[in-house]
Amino acid sequence: MRPPRPRGRVPPYAQGVAVTVEELPRTRSERALRASRGWLVILWVVLLGLQVAILVSGDVATTLHVVALGAYVFLVVVGLLEWRAPSAWRSAVLAPGERLLWGTSAARVLPGGGSGHDGVLVLTDRELRYEPRWTARLRGTHAESWPVASIGGVRVTPVDERRRRQGGRWVQVDVDGGPPVVVLTPETHLVADEVFTALHAQGLLPRP
Question: Can you spell out the DSSP letters for 146-164?
């Protein structure tokens, strides 16, 4: 399968231009992920506002409304954390001289299979790094990294047989001498295209 072809204007981070983290533009996948999660936050905020209005009115407020209020507060907090997750890669700890290129939030599927482990995918000029979120750490998942020189390709492939019947796809990063890095994300093609574009700009992957 041919690697994804870079589309549109190549952003500075993928041109090898030295920029600070603050100057890195939001990628298309980052904007798309934040937008989709932002709508959920708005929904929870609206429902929270309705519960507050009911409690303030004091007319029909019940224990059930108080419980619902707490539930909506929890959902708003979780929603805000999820909305911020696609940008968490910008705070990655770098070694001296290391340059941040790209990142996203994604769920990694371990070589043994199973459900995805939520985390942050970070690409620098030295390595591709997976950093699990606290939910994945509770499952015993550890951070891993792969030298960028060992990456042989990036592609979007159908998922395993269990998910294939639902039409799912995931991003697969081929690594020399080891199993591929497989991640699940709602923006599979955008993520694959951005990883390939960044690596190709560094001279690490051939032109498609």
Answer: EEGGGEEEEEEEE--HHHH
Helices 28-57 and 188-201 cross at an angle (nearest 10°) of 140
pTM: 0.71
Contact 177, 186 (CB under 8 A): no
Alpha-helical regions (H) of 85-187: 134-137, 161-164
Instruction: Write the pLDDT tens digit of every residue in 117-141.
Output: 888 999 999 999 999 988 888 888 8
The CATH number that applies at residue 38 is 2.30.29.30
Domain that holds residue 77: 1-208
- Rounded to whole angstroms, the Cα distance separating 39 from 30 reads 15
What DSSP letter does each residue of 21-77 carry, written as one string? GGGPPPPHHHHHHHHHHHHHHHHHHHHHHHHHHHHHH-SS--HHHHHHHHHHHHHHH
Task: Give Cα 190 distance to the centre of its chain.
Answer: 11
Q: Domains in the chain: how many in total?
A: 1
CA gap 56, 83 in Å, rounded: 29
